[in-house]
Amino acid sequence: MTVRDDAAYWACPHGYDARHGCAPCYQLSGDAEPTLPIWEVAVWFEAHSAIPVRTLKEVRRHGRNYLLDQLSATRVYLLTGHARAAGGAQAVAALVGFLRHDGHLVDGFTVRDFRAVRLDPPPGLPRPDRIWP
What top-level branch of life does the organism fall under (predicted)? Predict the structure, then answer.
């Protein structure tokens, strides 16, 4: 996981650390303004217990086009999806917030790594505004 000691860098608009998720960011990402950029987000996490295959499939039917897949390592999963957000921190906070908000999916987890990439950035946009972190 990317390490940086700047609390403001990791903070979502609600003041939460994006790496720990934010339920309000998750809820707002579904009704976000169409003018906000779309971010493609990937979150790798380790679940404290195995997630049933049925639950993995339920995420696909969630309505936000999120995908949850188990990687080859035991209890390591990849959650991917799109989020409309002002910045990468908010986009990551939204996807991790999905895991926190819908607690029936996974009882406990530890985020291992993540990445947010802005889709269709305007020409000349600096890297930190296109890829987070």
Answer: Bacteria
Q: Do residues 45 and 79 make contact, with C-beta atoms less than 8 angstroms apart?
A: yes
Give the chain's domain count: 1
Q: How far apart are the first and last CA of the chain?
A: 10
Q: How far is CA 21 from CA 27, 34, 54, 64, 116, in A?
A: 11, 22, 24, 17, 14
Residues 7-64 have pLDDT tens digits of 888 899 999 999 999 999 998 888 888 999 999 999 999 999 999 888 888 887 666 7
Q: Is residue 111 part of a domain?
A: yes
- Domain assignment present for 8: no
pTM for the predicted model, two decimal places: 0.89
